[in-house]
């Protein structure tokens, strides 16, 4: 796939996307987190790219949201869903849902929603999701004791690109390789031509080393798993919690075992993670811990062991009477001999015991194995001295031996663990992605449950005859009252209609409800209604109430907007709130009548909220449909409203209702005459 063919992807973004492992498949997958791994692509941008790929797949280049208010309602719908996510991923991923005019896109999203709403939101799953996040790539680890070697310039360039963790050295012959063997703990030669090479040290010829990164640089895998430990554990817990709640992540068979539907063996994953330290080194291996501690504590242990010997010897000397003949004494003094040699002569046994104590201490303190202890013995036991001397070169040999054993052990454990983790590398991507996608599904499910939603029928007017919308029991979650107190609204419109009604009767709220239901329906999401059927509109034009009379210039601009709007209006939904306020009432009525007429001619669906319904009807040259939100009357000075617009009914206005009430209550000519004027 040409990445640039995706709407919104230019050459620069395409270049960034090409850095991904499988750019086309990743972009198509809609996996926002995976797309966001491309350099310089954040999650919001990734969501736009994923949306672009969806549009392209469905050949869907239309823009359904045609006005600011329509776009605002879309944002409000998205926000209602986003509030129900736990992870940032799901919040971003929801942005890939957009109102579409493509039947296949709507069907695809509806299929997703249908499965999602089957899900039972479970508190344990929600809790586990809190620590879930997309996997991230750790910074490159530098491995300094291993190098790659090659004689070939091309292989060199490839090795440098593919194994940034290792130094890549140029070699010409066996001598060069052998030299490298002295500077690095291990050398991997990449050229076949060196096969059979016999040089000292840990040098291997492995022409396939670049193809097997988990063997060549196990550190890479280990760093990846160490970096992502918490996310992996959280994703594993999500799978378990979901399965335990009887609603497994990938919809598998809930009876087939707790982690039956996880793409990895979760126990194996946890076991592997427990063998890994946060810095990507090996954890929990007693032998490695022993060797590491032995190297680290060596100097301190030698010095304590020497003190142990000194104490012993001091004690022994203190308790002994040393008799020395005058001639011996004289000869000692004449030879300039040190008192130390007395130790040899007079205290040989005590000295040996002290040295043994030092050796024992050293072996115990460092928990040395028998062969290592043999080396350690050489640290003490040279010429007698007080304080007891130690042999620095023996310490150094012991250190070299212990370090080498430690490194061998670590390398083996790393290789073993990397080989275990290697099999898990791909499946854990799925493990985490499934957990995060579950959050998207649960957000939709919660939304549907919180607002008593249903999946609407989105129909094509050509196939299904009547266009427009039918909403039954619609309850807007956008009202300024608690959702529990929202009264259900039934409303059906086909063609262009006026919506009249008392002040604060719910006209604007009805327009909002219609817009929200249509936007959600065309996003392929459930809508807050008992049932709904909506035409698959090409465009939604929603105009909010304007703030007062416009000056001549603004009025002209608005009129031009409507001129464009009525041009080719077929397939459009037009919702307009009190357009009359843009100019003086007489002119407004004529203008609205004209716009309605043009829209009606073209089979657009339109609802114009207006207090001038009567005047507009009078000004129109055609039979304008008028619906009304009726007040059942005034009760204790408060309007009682039937929120569902009544078809073909011009609702009485609030002033009319009040005059009527006064005429009833007080009687008299004045109120009666006034009432007649309505
Ligand atoms: N379906 C409903 N259920 C409960 N309350 C509602 C409903 N519809 C509207 N309301 C309440 O009525 C108030 C007024 O609604 P709205 O602004 O839609 O009326 P309006 O007819 O457009 O008023 P105006 O003629 O003054 O523009 C809302 O703020 C809300 O509190």
Automatic annotation (TrEMBL):
InterPro entries: DNA-bd_MutS2_arc, DNA_mismatch_repair_MutS_C, MutS, P-loop_NTPase, RuvA_2-like. Residues 494-678 form the DNA mismatch repair proteins mutS family domain. ATP binds at residues 501-508. GO terms for molecular function: ATP binding; ATP-dependent DNA damage sensor activity; endonuclease activity; hydrolase activity; mismatched DNA binding. Keywords: ATP-binding, DNA-binding, Endonuclease, Hydrolase, Nuclease, Nucleotide-binding. One of its GO terms (biological process) is mismatch repair. Its cofactor is a divalent metal cation. SUPFAM superfamilies: P-loop containing nucleoside triphosphate hydrolases (SSF52540), RuvA domain 2-like (SSF47781). PANTHER family: DNA MISMATCH REPAIR PROTEIN MUTS FAMILY MEMBER, DNA-BINDING PROTEIN MUTS2. Belongs to the DNA mismatch repair MutS family. Archaeal Muts2 subfamily. HAMAP family: MutS2_archaea. This is DNA-binding protein MutS2.
């Amino acid at each position: 796939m040409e990445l640039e063919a995706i709407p919104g992807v230019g050459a620069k973004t395409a270049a960034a996307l090409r850095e991904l492992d499988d750019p086309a498949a990743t972009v198509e997958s809609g996996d926002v987190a995976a797309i966001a791994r491309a350099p310089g692509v954040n999650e919001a941008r990734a969501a736009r790219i994923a949306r672009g790929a969806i549009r392209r797949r469905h050949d869907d280049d239309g823009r359904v949201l045609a006005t600011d208010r329509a776009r605002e309602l879309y944002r409000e719908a998205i926000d209602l869903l986003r509030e129900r996510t736990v992870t940032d991923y799901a919040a971003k991923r929801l942005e890939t849902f957009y109102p579409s005019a493509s039947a296949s896109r709507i069907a695809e999203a509806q299929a997703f929603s249908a499965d999602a709403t089957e899900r039972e939101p479970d508190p344990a799953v929600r809790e586990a999701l809190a620590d879930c996040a997309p996997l991230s790539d750790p910074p490159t680890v530098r491995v300094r004791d291993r190098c790659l070697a090659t004689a070939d310039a091309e292989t060199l360039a490839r090795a440098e690109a593919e194994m940034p963790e290792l130094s890549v050295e140029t070699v010409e012959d066996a001598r060069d390789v052998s030299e490298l063997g002295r500077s690095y703990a291990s050398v991997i030669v990449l050229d076949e031509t060196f096969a059979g090479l016999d040089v000292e040290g840990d040098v291997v010829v492995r022409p396939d080393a670049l193809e097997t990164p988990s063997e060549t640089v196990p550190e890479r895998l280990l760093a990846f798993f160490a970096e992502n430990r918490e996310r992996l554990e959280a994703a594993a817990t999500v799978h378990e919690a979901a399965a335990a709640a009887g609603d497994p992540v990938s919809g598998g068979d809930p009876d087939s075992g707790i982690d039956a539907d996880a793409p990895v063996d979760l126990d194996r994953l946890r076991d592997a993670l427990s063998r890994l330290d946060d810095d990507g080194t090996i954890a929990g291996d007693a032998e490695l811990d022993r060797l590491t501690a032995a190297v680290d504590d060596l100097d301190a242990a030698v010095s304590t062991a020497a003190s142990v010997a000194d104490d012993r010897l001091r004690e022994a000397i203190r308790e002994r009477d040393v008799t020395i003949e005058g001639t011996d004494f004289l000869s000692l003094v004449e030879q300039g001999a040190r008192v130390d040699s007395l130790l040899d002569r007079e205290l040989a046994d005590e000295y040996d015991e002290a040295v043994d104590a030092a050796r024992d201490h050293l072996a115990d303190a460092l928990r040395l194995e028998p062969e290592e202890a043999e080396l350690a013995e050489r640290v003490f036991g040279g010429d007698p001295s007080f304080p007891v001397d130690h042999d620095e070169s023996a310490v150094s040999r012991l250190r070299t031996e212990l370090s080498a054993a430690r490194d061998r052990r670590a390398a083996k454990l790393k290789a073993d663990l990397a080989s275990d983790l290697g099999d898990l590398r791909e499946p854990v991507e799925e493990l985490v992605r499934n957990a995060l996608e579950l959050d998207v599904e649960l957000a939709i499910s919660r939304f549907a449950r919180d607002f008593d939603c249903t999946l609407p029928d989105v129909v094509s007017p050509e196939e299904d005859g009547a266009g427009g919308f039918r909403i039954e029991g619609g309850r807007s979650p956008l009202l300024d009252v608690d959702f529990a107190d929202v009264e259900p609204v039934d409303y059906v419109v086909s063609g262009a209609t006026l919506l009249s009604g008392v002040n604060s009767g719910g006209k604007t709220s009805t327009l909002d409800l219609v817009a929200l239901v249509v936007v959600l329906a065309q996003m392929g999401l459930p809508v807050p209604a008992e049932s709904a059927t909506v035409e698959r509109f090409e465009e939604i034009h929603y105009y909010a109430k304007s703030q007062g009379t416009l000056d001549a210039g603004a009025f002209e601009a608005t009129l031009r907007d409507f001129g464009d709007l009525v041009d080719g209006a077929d397939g459009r939904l037009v919702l307009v709130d009190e357009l009359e306020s843009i100019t003086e009432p007489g002119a407004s009525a004529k203008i609205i009548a004209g716009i309605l007429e043009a829209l009606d001619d073209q089979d657009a669906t339109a609802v114009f909220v207006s207090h001038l319904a009567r005047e507009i009807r009078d000004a129109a040259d055609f039979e304008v449909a008028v619906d009304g939100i009726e007040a059942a009357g005034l009760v204790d000075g408060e309007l009682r409203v039937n929120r569902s617009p009544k078809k073909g009914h011009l609702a009485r206005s609030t002033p009319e209702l009040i005059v009527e009430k006064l005429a009833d209550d007080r009687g008299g000519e004045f109120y009666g005459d006034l009432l007649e004027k309505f």
